[in-house]
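Handout, page 2. Input:
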Amino acid sequence: MRIVKATESRARHLRRGIIAPASLGVIATCIVAAPAWAQTVTPQATIPSDAPNPSGVPAATPAETDEASSRDIIVTGSRITTGGFTAPTPTTVIGEEQIAANAQPNVFTTIAQLPSLQGSSGTSVNTFSTSSGQQGLSSFSLRGVGAIRTLTLLDGQRVVGANVTGVPDISLFPQLLIKRVDVVNGGASASYGSDAVGGVVNFITDTRFKGIKGNVQGGVTTYGDDRQVLVQLAGGTSLLNDRLHVIASTEYAHEDGVGGGDFGIGLAGGRDWFRQPTLINRNVLNDGSPQYLFRDYAQSYNYTKYGLITAGPLQGIAFDQSGNPFQFQYGSNGVPARDAAGNVIGCLPGFCQGGDLSGNVDAGRSLQSRIQRVNSYGRIGYDFAPNGELYGTINIGQVKTNNQPVGGQNRPNLTIQCANPYVPALVKAACTTAGITNFQYGTSNAALGNSQVYTDRRQFRFVAGAKGREAVAGSDWSYDIYFEHGTNYTDIDVSNILLSRRFNQAINATTVNGAIVCADPTARANGCQPLNIFGGNPSGAALGYIMPDRGPYQRTRQTQDVISLNFSGSPFSSWAGPVSVAFGGEFRHEFYRVRADPYGAGFANTPANAAYPADPVLLADGNNWYAGNYKNGGGAYSVKEAFIEANLPIIDSDAGGRANINGAARVTDYSTSGTVWAWKIGGTWDLPVDGLRIRGVTSRDVRAPNLSELFAAPVTTTLPGFFDPFRNVTVLALQNTIGNVNLTPEIARNTTLGIAFSNSQAIPGLSLSVDYYKIKITDVISSLGAQDIVNLCFLNIAPETCGVFNLNNPNGPNFINVQSFNLASILTDGFDIEASYRWRNPLGLAGNLTLRALATNIRRFITDTGLPGTIPNDSAGVNIGNTPKWKWLAVQTYATDDWSLLLQERWFSDGNLGNQYVVCTTGCPASTVNRPTIDRNFIPGAFYFDIGGTYNVTPAVTAYFKVDNLFNRDPAPSPYFVNPALYDVLGRVFRAGVRFNF
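Output:
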């Protein structure tokens, strides 16, 4: 299989009293990764016989060509299926040989390496979360605009979402039968409808496979963890005189993942690259020094591993695992001020540098989720006519993941009574001497252990359809009609996590009749067991009370039903050739329902039961867990669509070359937001210069709000170290994200212009291409980050935000409410560049040498939040996000009939924390929300070198190996622990296996 590359309204203002969403410095980063052996020329429905074959695979025989031509031709990015059509939208095609050569345990990883894919999420992303529901979810993001703006298809058909955002999980796809993957780098809403704003990723399966093939692979990192096993088997045959076609595949994959390290800065497996980098907000804006300081070895002085007195006359007394008090070692030569605010002289707000780091919790985060996937796929097709087929497919898959979001369950800002019987005698005496009855306290809660999140996704997908070709009015017309039904069940369970209000009651101990008990009589009557919070030796009874066996859960059911009709033909010819037309319609219904436990959702939504008994200590409205406060919810919407597409040849001569114009329009009616139009117009021109082609297309694309944005059950995220600028302290807070049924579709304008050189007789084997792209999205559905909401209120830029949070709530948890609106806009543009050369029998040697390089340059990635008092923010080159300025992949392959060797280099450019920052150390200007000052604004890029090879043991059996990140390059420091969207967090990985094909 050869690889080919085919080639505003302003955001609405804040409504009075409502906060409008789309984060200032962070939103641009969060709204994203690099390639796998793709040569780029323009895909055509028919490939010229003199086209280069860079994969080294033998050319198809005449019989194979005849069989292929008797079936429909798939050109992703267009609905036209007639021969000779050239699509104007740049499209990268990755063949099965290239997927195999990369030797990854999941095809997702191979595709996500394409430079135009930026911000895709896999098993090393979303591992720091408890409540997102996206742990272990493998989804693509083109052009950095997010997975929700990238449409992923299987054989040109939609797939039920594996999350309420609507994105599917690639881990649930049948991977061994993948024939190729088409990546359309540009808007395709006119062809496919909503979501295709950044582009389309289309997995094409081999529907006529005959024989038996399989793959057995194992892997491990250089640290001895993330052990991997992959077993795949597929078979296919034809019956009834080659009219009945049956294929099936099954696969099992398991990756151990890389769990969290210990408290402090030690990571799992002995990795030593973590230095606790932190972006510290001094919260001083105009004293000549920078507001933000980027520091390594940051030490929070609000808690320690086994407890610390954080304010007042006893400030600085810490406790070891046995509960013995000792003087805490502050970094920066800090001295506790022993005042009510808990300041430390010589340190920065909330942090010192160095000192005792044993209580730091970030190293406890999983670097990669444990994942196990089981997948089965079957297809039966019956040729009821020479050019007609009835078919049905079934895809059943399950993906289980496990991650550890963070170490411990830290609780700063606790108040402990000096009379508490667990307080050591020395501390009690010090209380008496100081004349105090209580003190402020913080702990990592290392004694409670680490919380674990388990996800279980199960997909059931069924498709029935008919496709073929019939003569109508003297010309051939193809048809493709299908019905798809998909159901996804997602179960999330969290274990070893505390109930915050029970914890508060348990640590408030007293003595009654010589026994240590909980001080509150109501809590006592409902089973409260006192907890010794000093040191690391809690009783089993106390642990059972604050962390019951049944933790938070969420049960989600999503369904998708699609009826689609597509027709394509050439009704007449122009002066330059046949005019091709495609038209059709589609109906789609999306539904979801989610249920959660009573303690998170509230007793009115999920009644108390034997597993979750009523408890007057708990909040009746929910939000009782430390994290994982899932909510109930549900919703549905329907979509009706119709489209037409035409291709008009305008030049076909030796003097003028060959040119065509391609246009399409689609009208879509959403049950939630009304009618919207999408369109595209473009063309290609094969110049009368051997091998040279120019191409261009512009389109209007749409993305409708998904189920999550419209009807989301409130998603609660725990923010353990949230900065409160009003009191200059860090607090524990809950972020509540809720839906908005008044959202309208996003509107995008996509433009690409390119030039390509390939298939030249003068320089055979050489291919070059350069494409410019520009995407402008308006009415972007987005939400402000929690910190931005608080800061906009604190700085009096948007007083409307002041009513949606409470960071000093005596009656319940601190909270920030976040909701989405059509506020923001996104503008991004850049270049895709590719070069490849295939040298047959280099220097007279047997075999072929293939050199390839692909690159993407992001010139701008500008997000305008639409908020008063803010300015657009450019996140191109921000390496704590997904959009580095430059990203490329280079591959060199030497292959003979018996063996092959592959070298691969992956690189992206140096960047920064944000383009909005003003870098200074002294004499700084006044720091503002739009142009904050910072002392260091540099995040290095990375270079990774991979090597692999194969050896043909027999004509049907191949042994192979692959080493990724051969030089074991560590990730760059990030103030947010690490950025797995760009950097390799695992280190060197070894893989080896055997493939067979009979």
